[in-house]
Design brief:
Shape: elongated
Order of helices and strands: EEHEEH
Strand order of the largest sheet: 1-2
Radius of gyration: 34 Å
Number of strands: 4
Oligomer: single chain
Mean pLDDT: 77
């Protein structure tokens, strides 16, 4: 036997579903974001111990300001030489950043 849906009785209509859509209040406008600061290209006063190349990196004024309070001989990062065939890894001190040209 095949199941057949029952026929609706005459005079009985299916119930309509009414959905009400409420508008949400608009979010307040945010103040415009400050423009990002253009990073400067710095060449820290440090050279690769293997090939003598000087690194070039982009840093912001915030980084320079943060490093201003550190002792000059404190290691603040490392750098891997990008010159082909070199790849030496060496330390960068705070004074290397602060003496950058």
């Amino acid at each position: 036997m095949i199941a057949v849906p029952a026929l609706p009785e005459p005079g009985v209509h299916p119930r309509r579903v009414v959905r009400r859509v409420l508008r949400r209040p608009a979010a307040p406008a945010l103040p415009p974001a400050p423009e990002p600061q253009e990073p400067r290209l710095l060449r820290p006063a440090a050279t690769c111990p293997r090939c003598g190349a000087r690194p070039a990196m982009r840093v912001t004024d915030a980084i320079i300001g943060a490093l201003a309070g550190h002792p000059g001989d404190e290691r603040v990062g490392t750098y891997q030489c990008q010159r082909r065939g070199c790849g030496a890894i060496y330390d960068l001190t705070a004074s290397a950043y602060l003496q950058a040209s």
